[in-house]
Sequence to fold (146 residues):
Amino acid sequence: MITAADEPLLRRAIAIAAHAVTLGDAPYGSLLAGPDGAVLAEAHNTVRRDDDITAHPELKLARWAARALAPEVAARTTLYTSCQPCGMCDGGIARSGIGRVVYALSTEQLIALNPPSGAWPTVPHDGPALHEEAQAPVAAYYRPAR
Fold:
C-alpha cells in the first residue's frame, strides 16, 4: 500500500527519470530510501551509455545495497522507481535483501507507451539434465566434508 510518505520519494524517482533523458539516457530512475525516508542512493538507466544491458537503475541500487548495507538494514529499505522492475531487476532486488519496492508506472502502462519494451522474446530452456554431475559441486559447497 502506497502512503503519503511514499509520494515525495516516488516523485523524486520520476524526476531522476526525467533528468536521465536530458543526459541522453533512457527515462528510468530509482532511489533507495532508509526506514526514516532518507535517500541512501540514486541511479538512472545507463544501458545505452554504458553499453551494458544490465545498467538498469533498480539493479544498480540492488547491487549497491548488497555491498554497502548490512542485511538487517537492507531489509528496512524501500526502492522507489519510476517503472515496475523487470524480471532481471526483480531477481537482483530479492537477492539484495531490499525490503520493499514502490513504483510509478506498471509494466502494462510502460508497454502501452512504448510497445517494443514488452517485445522481448522468450528464450527456450531445456533441463534439468546431468543431475548427478551438476549436483556434486553444489552439494560440496553447501555441505562441505568435515
User: Anything to note?
Assistant: The radius of gyration is 18 Å.
